[in-house]
Amino acid sequence: MDTTSHDLPWPALRALRALAEHGTMTAAAAALGYTTGAVSQQLAVLARHLGTEVVRPHGRGVALTEAGAVLAARAEGLLVSQRDAVLAARAATADTVGTVRVGAFATVAASMLPRLVAGLATLHPRVTLEGYELTVDDVAAAVRRGDVDLGLGLDYPGAPIPRVPGTTLRPLRTERFGVVSAPTADLPDRLALADLEDVPWILPPLPTHYGAAVRHACRAAGFEPRAAHEVNDTSTTLALVAQGLGVALATPMMRTLRPAGELRTSTLRDLVEREIVLLEPASAPHRPAVDALTKVIEGVVHGSLTHDDIAPRSAW
User: Fold this and answer.
1) Domains, in order of start, for the chain
2) Which residues are within 8 A (CB) of 18 and not within 5 positions of it... i.e. 6 or more apart?
3) For residue range 51-72, what is the model confidence (pLDDT) as tens digits?
4) What is the pLDDT of residues 262-314, one digit of tens each?
5) What CA–CA distance (Å, rounded) separates 156 from 89?
């Protein structure tokens, strides 16, 4: 019996495309939010549908077979077509109703998603927001793949967010960094980065965009920051700062993750900034629900939608 099929399973095709893009099963699994075992299972499903293997053992990992490479080269177009078909069907209604998926970097997710949910509940109660935490590197790619409808990211001059074909990046607001320290710290209200050369820092790890941006700013000021602790999570960073274990750079949005009064903020003479950006598909069909959420995002980011305008509501 011929077990092959011309009807390719979409999850398996996404797994193949992710493997081709990221190079390893582990990296492909991380990009998709799967386990490595789940990616392996999807590739096995794809092989059964094709009637031929799509990967082969290579060293300690795997490599694409010739058939896998041919299919992977076409996978992007197939998946984009599938995404556009689904979006076109959803856009067929003129009603502002439906689910909108938003991918966001951790700090943005923690500080903005609750207000976005509350804003939708108040202004567009028939629109549901599904939020997904993604790394900075994966936000644009997730928008391109159609895994999310919109992406919220952070763009640093010294460590820009990846520009991915098939997506558009729209700046929403520029945030300026200040220096945060413990309330007991003897730092002036206004200072230069160079004044902090000899103090301990709570630094984000270098592979992150934030980590690269902080080090870039300090090097431009003529010194290498001395790490007392390296922490990726912003809330943990601010907690360590509040305990007097070091200083850090933080924006107003970041500081909302810590209760008022637990941190001292000094204005920087140096101009260190980042932009909150909205990532959208370059050619997605018009959807009223997505347009509604986009307007809520703009209102929250620009401050025209305040806590007085949107009363948070429990989902329970």
Assistant:
1) 10-89 (1.10.10.10), 91-174+275-302 (3.40.190.10), 178-271 (3.40.190.10)
2) 27, 28, 29, 31, 32, 39
3) 999 999 988 889 999 999 999 9
4) 999 999 999 999 999 999 998 777 788 999 999 999 999 887 665 555 554 44
5) 36
